[in-house]
Amino acid sequence: MAALEAKVGRAGPLAPARKACGTAALAAAALLIALPAAAQQGTPVSCDPILGKPFVPVPELVSKDGVLKGTILLADQEERIAFRQPTGFRNVPGRPGLFFRCFPQHVRTLRLGPVAAPPDTLTDPTPGPTLRARVGDVVELTFLNQINTANFPYTMDVADKRPGGGCDLSRGGGGYPGNPATGGDAFPDCFHGSSTGNIHFHGSHVNPDGTGDNVFVEVKPSPRNPPGGRGGAPVVTADTVKQQFDAFFTACEQHFKGNILAQWPSSWSDPPLGPPSTAGTWLADQTKLLQQYAPDWWPKDEMAWHSGRWPQFYIGAYPYCFLIPDYTSPTFTPTLAGQPPQTGLRMGQAPGTHWYHAHKHGSTAIDVANGMTGVFIMEGKYDDDLKAFYGADWLHGQKVIVINQLGVSPNLMRSAPGGNPGPGSSDKGEDFSVNGRLQPVLEMAPGEVQMWRIANTSGRSGAYFIGPPKADETTTAFDPQTDFQWKQLAQDGVQFNDVNYQKSLNRAFLLAAGNRADLLVQAPLTPGTYAVQVKHDVDPQDLPSAYRVTLLSVKVSGTPATGPGSQFIPQAPAFPAFLADISDQEVTGTKTIVFASTPPNNPPTQPAMHTIDGQKFGDQTGAVVLLNRVEEWRIENQTYGPPISHPFHIHVNPFQVVEVFDPNEALVTNPRTGFPVVDPNSGLPYPKYVTDKRQPLQTVAGHSQCYLDPYDPATWKPCEKGPQANRIWWDVFPIPSGLAVSDAAGNPLINPKTGQPILIPGYFKMRSRFVDFAGYYVMHCHILAHEDRGMMTIVQVAPLYPPVQHH
User: Fold this and answer.
1) SS3 label, residue 246
2) Alpha carbon of 93 to those of 8, 38, 100: distances in Å?
3) pTM exceeds cut of 0.85
4) What is the spatial distance between Cα 379 and Cα 352, in angstroms, rounded to a whole number?
5) Beta bridge partners of 5
6) Is residue 213 part of a domain?
7) Is 90 found in the same domain as 27?
8) N or C: which end of the chain has fewer CB within 10 A?
């Protein structure tokens, strides 16, 4: 049986790859306390098919004649899943002496439908299909949920009434998430409902309600005939809904032809959906299914329908239909009320690399870990400009790289002998996979330039890409014979302007969970096999002690590339006007949003808590914004240990970062690797911020330390201004963790006025245009176990028009 022994060392980020095989000698074991889909004991299988093999492209679903049409199937099957061995304390990615063992695991998958693979056939992991469309296209996806719940006996989808209010049980009972009576997790902020599904179109600037990017929708698995056991066939299939969905999709297209801002449908009464009393409609069938198989859900849907809201509960199938809006300049028609209706767009959909994933609250972490993610490429003029320089064939040969941390249990508290491991030694989750494989091998010609569309779809860890070219981290010299180069074209699906593109040469960068990057990569001229290495990063304080891990390898061979295919495009693609910097004058309001995690067992017996503005996710709305307004928000992190830079994510509208304050920031970092420069006396990074006035400020490599008065919050801000122009757009950005101030002896510094320890939060300030689409969506931490356990809140973008007029 093939296994891998990690050989990390100091090989450099893009140096000759090294790996060794050996024979695994340890039995399978669950990594931690196990949830319903935890590691299942069984006979090990060979890791050889998924380890170190040629890069595997992901199947694509491509739009045709302006429509992206197809079936996305949520099903379950046996897959070959790798586990690091030996398990236990300090089993962390890249640690020398570790290897993999593979076991067949029953997981949930997203596949091109409409027919699932045989459930007992062992398959190799792969992401969901790559969706490829163009701005201006209509998306028409039939979503089917055909998971057989008999294969997941611990989930609340099998029995809704669980002790603790509907949370999934841990295998063997007890343990995490704990007893709600003693502070443990309670419904809805616990792991639950892992067979119920939906799709979030991450990075889409579209309608957040109805059949658009609506993450509140929940689709239960189809019932089976005969019921029970593993042999029954799904009752709801692509054939049973085809006629009804085709009529709906036709009506959907007609609405978008007349209005690019249409947010249709808004009611179950909109034909041809219903109303539910109309015989032969999809909603009539849904009504019967809900009343029979989800009697607790039907009254909620009925109430929402009669109150004018879009119901959220469905069984077996759901039609996603929305327009990917192509930017058109907005025009206005004056009205008597003085509030002009808008035609055209204020933002538009940025063409680029976006992605999609399961977003059912309570099961997001386990579903994403099972592999329910995929890339959504939205093409536009950005692609046209690249094609004009490189040629159509080159663009079609771009590499789609889906990073994930595949596994069968979400991130639980990583208990270990002696307490919680510290930065760099605690587990940041599973090893990174690429398109479902471990350490695959890409092929490039000497000097060839490829475009890599990279999406970190992991549910926990960031992938820190160590800047090329040298293994020696003290030099920035470049040798074209043995070194790679890269330049970044886009971040989070939004292209760079030319200033940022030119500055990105060989720069290290972090792809936090949820981030994307479009990267131009040039191979060295010397043939050989080179390892592309990254570090796991949940907080920058992880980097100094984190091990390097091989993400993928590149085999360089053949005839050297020539012409445009051996060059970086001289200038970035044309930058659209709607992505211009948000000016001070545009800002119409401000808010402060506070993310916070408490450490486990503080107070004793209480699990860690994850909140936004002191609350776990529920029915409350955390932020209200008027449509077509621009706001600046301070996103604050009051997490003080262990250090966690929560990746902040907001749906629908991207944002620009205008200020960042990290009280734990290192003074000097290597410009190529991004790693902090260490004080030779202490062995620790030089801190940028000093809280003790008795300590003289130092200047290292032209960078000077700054003083923060721990007793004066007015000084708790960056001592250098952020970018004043050419700002980058994001939809995920890590919030710097907070600092628990200590005295010279290492004891907590106490505020004499309050008698409490002094805690300095990290934060960043972001600006966003809340434009074009009203409705409800969410913001949350993209460490998905935190989101599932409560670190999420609702954003309401309210229409500008008042609900009533007084005479």
Assistant:
1) helix
2) 10, 19, 11
3) yes
4) 6
5) 20
6) yes
7) yes
8) C
